[in-house]
Design a protein that fits this description.
42% of the residues lie in helices and 19% in strands. The strands form 2 sheets. Strands 3-2-1-4-5 form a 5-stranded parallel β-sheet, sandwiched between helices. Strands 6-7 form a two-stranded antiparallel ribbon. By secondary structure, the protein is an alpha/beta fold.
Length: 177
């Protein structure tokens, strides 16, 4: 993260993106479309290891859908201009929502737009949310675009639901999501 280039009209999204499911794909499409419309660059910021594996190291029940390499390959398949894999550490997880916005997002990426899902949380104890990000937008020089939840068969799509379906051996349900 120390040697990041300066991005042109950065359109940023942030998340774990485990499995790059239909909801994630909706976010990636918006990021790419918006970047094209402002002559900017699309940037996906994801984390390795997965934040839950760092914050809850004794919880061995979580099985990831994709490896970090698979995730990056999927992002490239969706023609994202830049995929930034940020190291997720205990120290990083201890940042307040304010520090996360100012020291991480604004200082490192200078976003013009931040595109995130309706349920995105960040900062110590997941204290930051989309409204907090929007509130800081004018000061940080960015606008926030919210992507609503994506449903399949009246069920919100999520990596957790895909993992649960896979654990039960319900491959067809996992594939639909």
């Amino acid at each position: 993260l120390k040697n990041l280039p300066s991005f042109r009209n950065a359109v940023v999204t942030i998340g774990s993106f485990d499995g790059v499911h239909l909801g994630h794909q909706q976010i990636l499409k918006k990021v790419n479309d918006l970047a094209n419309s402002v002559d900017g660059e699309s940037i996906v910021i994801t984390f390795h290891p997965h934040p839950r594996l760092v914050v809850y190291p004794k919880d061995t029940t979580m099985k990831l859908i994709t490896t970090i390499d698979e995730k990056v390959q999927l992002m490239e398949r969706y023609q994202v201009d830049n995929v930034v894999v940020a190291p997720f550490t205990i120290e990083f997880s201890q940042q307040s929502a304010d520090e996360y916005i100012q020291k991480f997002l604004v200082e490192k990426f200078h976003p013009r737009y931040i595109v995130i899902g309706y349920d995105h949380r960040f900062g110590l104890n997941r204290q930051g949310d989309i409204n907090y990000l929007k509130w800081h937008g004018p000061e940080g020089g960015y606008k926030v675009i919210e992507i609503p939840r994506h449903e399949v068969d009246h069920m919100a799509v999520s990596s957790t639901k895909i993992r649960n379906a896979m654990d039960k051996g319900d491959v067809s349900a996992a594939q639909r999501l």
